[in-house]
Structure formats: structure tokens, C-alpha cells
Design goal:
Layout lengths: L2 H11 L8 H12 L6 E5 L2 E4 L5 H6 L4 E2 L9 E2 L1 H4 L8 H16 L4 H8 L3 H8 L1
Antiparallel strand pairs: 1-2, 3-4
Helix pairs in contact: 1-2, 6-7
């Protein structure tokens, strides 16, 4: 996907104001973005998912979507502004500090190398966070 296509999908997902399963999101996103988003090119669990789903984690990182309540065996997504009243995304620096803080609370004491492995991040970059 191009960066423009990712931005388009994230914009479409920002309009989600009710709990929706991935199947429901498939219909909504493909209907809004067009047939290119429906191309089944993402290998997952022995099948192929539509192209738009590549942008799903990015939408979460940008604060557009979060997990909603389960519907039986299916999970849903929803806007964090609706699900978490008063939600305001943190700036990157503050969010990163919170990740380190909560990691150390759960797994500490820990070294920067251990955190880098857990986060799947470059050890030199993580070492700067710990200094």
C-alpha cells in the first residue's frame, strides 16, 4: 500500500462510531475506499485478507481505533473517543515514556537490552531511553 492509501484507510476508519467486527469493517472500508482495498493480498491464518487490513494496526497506533467488546468469538473495533470517554492520544514522547514505565512495572528490574527485545526495537535506540 502507498502512504496515501494508508492515510485514506485511516481516515475511513476514523468514521467508525459503533462496534464493528473485521467482517463488518471489510464492507464499510471497501465501500468507502473502492475495489483496490478489497484485493486479497494479505496472507493470514491459511487464507488471504483484503489489502486494507494492512492499515489496521496503523489506525490503532494513530489513536483512530481500539478493541471494543467481544461478540461471542469475534472481537470488535471502535473509536477510542466513543469507547474511552475523554480519550486524548498522547504525544509520541509521553507515550513512549509510559510504555517504558509500564514495562518496568510489570517486568522490572530489566535492562535496556531486555526491553529492546520485548519491543522489537534497535538496542542502541532503546539504550538512549534508559539513560
Amino acid at each position: 500500500m502507498t502512504l496515501e492509501q494508508i492515510d485514506e484507510i485511516v481516515e475511513v476508519l476514523s468514521a467508525v462510531h459503533t462496534e464493528m467486527t473485521t467482517d463488518e469493517l471489510d464492507e464499510a472500508v471497501i465501500g468507502a475506499a473502492g475495489s483496490w482495498a478489497a484485493n486479497r493480498v494479505v496472507p493470514a491464518f491459511g487464507e488471504m485478507w483484503p489489502r486494507w487490513r494492512i492499515a489496521l494496526p496503523i489506525a490503532g497506533i494513530r489513536g483512530t481505533l481500539c478493541y471494543g467488546p467481544n461478540r461471542g468469538r469475534k472481537f470488535t473495533y471502535i473509536s477510542p473517543h466513543r469507547h474511552l470517554l475523554g480519550f486524548q492520544p498522547m504525544d509520541g514522547h509521553t507515550a513512549l515514556n509510559q510504555v517504558v514505565k509500564h514495562y518496568l512495572y510489570a517486568y522490572g528490574p530489566a535492562t535496556s537490552q531486555q526491553f529492546a527485545k520485548w519491543l522489537n526495537a534497535p538496542p542502541k535506540w532503546v539504550a538512549k531511553l534508559f539513560s
